[in-house]
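Just wondering, does anyone understand these tokens?
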Amino acid sequence: MNRLSCVMVVIAICIGFSNAKMKNSVHFKNSLLPKNILKIHCLSDEDDLGIHFLNPGQTYNIRFNDSIYCQLWQGINYKFFAKFRAYKSGGLIVHHGKMNFWDVREDGIYFTHGKQIPKLEYKWKDISLRKKLKVRPPSLF
């Protein structure tokens, strides 16, 4: 191995160790109308992160290294529903310290990495219609 290759390997190892402590994060904010509680249930590749309830204005933050899948409910009897991948890990480039912001509003769920204006990513589904039709509720991923 020549000298340049050795230096490059050492630099790559140092970068890997410095990034290893920086976890990725997902941030949810309840921007719904007053008294409209948001219900969140998220899973990582390895863990069930449990169910969390947010009042308007509250946030829920997750730090992790895996993909995160979430289900959200809101409205009277939690009749509005959405499920999506809140963060995707993997690929050719490993990301450390990446932040995903989800702003939950009446018309849907908005996304940004924090540098740009949030854009609508997901609209709510009315699951009360499924109950009337006696259709099975949506499965957890």
